[in-house]
From TrEMBL:
Lineage: Eukaryota, Metazoa, Chordata, Craniata, Vertebrata
GO biological process, one term: quinolinate catabolic process
PANTHER family, per the entry: NICOTINATE-NUCLEOTIDE PYROPHOSPHORYLASE [CARBOXYLATING]
Signal peptide limits: 1-16
Coiled-coil annotated residue ranges, if any: none
Assigned keywords, A-Z: Glycosyltransferase, Signal, Transferase
Name by which UniProt lists this protein: Quinolinate phosphoribosyl transferase C-terminal domain-containing protein
Domain Quinolinate phosphoribosyl transferase C-terminal: 36-136
Species of provenance: Ursus maritimus (Polar bear)
Length: 151
């Protein structure tokens, strides 16, 4: 399949993941974290915090060396997370470490530790019940008319 044909079959996020995977495996050499951090710093305001999502200690070190303000350790088990965070903080004490992925209120204490600065719980938004509401605006000087609806 040609790339245009592939684009018709796969969503953009999947194509991006495939391209990223290909770059990491087949094009050794460039530090992708450094390129991303440098690019973000060039186009962003000085107050921007740059965070890099990492899946290994090596990626986290590359991100910290590149100047990331925060390193997100994604989908680490607690027994992997804490030694990775400790090693990262030992080399880069000023870098913030965020834990994310697979964290729930039930297992939250396992992810807390002295080298973890931020913990993200996706379940707070992903599992939140929906609330149906509306907002009605009225022109100044007019009063709303109350209408009771019965089913």
């Amino acid at each position: 399949l040609s790339l245009p044909g592939l684009a018709l079959l796969l969503p953009p996020a999947t194509l991006a993941a495939l391209a990223d995977s290909w770059l990491r495996e087949d094009c050794p050499g460039p530090n992708h974290a450094a390129l991303a951090v440098r690019g973000a710093r060039q186009v962003a305001d000085f107050a921007l915090k740059v965070e890099v999502e990492c899946s290994s200690l090596q990626e986290a070190v590359e991100a910290a060396e590149a100047g990331a303000d925060l390193v997100l350790l994604d989908n680490f088990k607690p027994e992997e997370l804490h030694p990775t965070a400790a090693a990262l903080k030992a080399r880069f004490p000023g870098v913030g470490v965020e834990a994310s992925g697979g964290i729930t209120l039930a297992n939250l204490p396992q992810f807390c530790g002295p080298h973890i600065d931020v913990i993200s719980l996706g379940m707070l938004t992903q599992a939140a019940p929906a609330l149906d509401f509306s907002l009605k605006l009225f022109a100044e000087g007019t009063a709303p008319v109350c209408r009771a609806y019965r089913s």
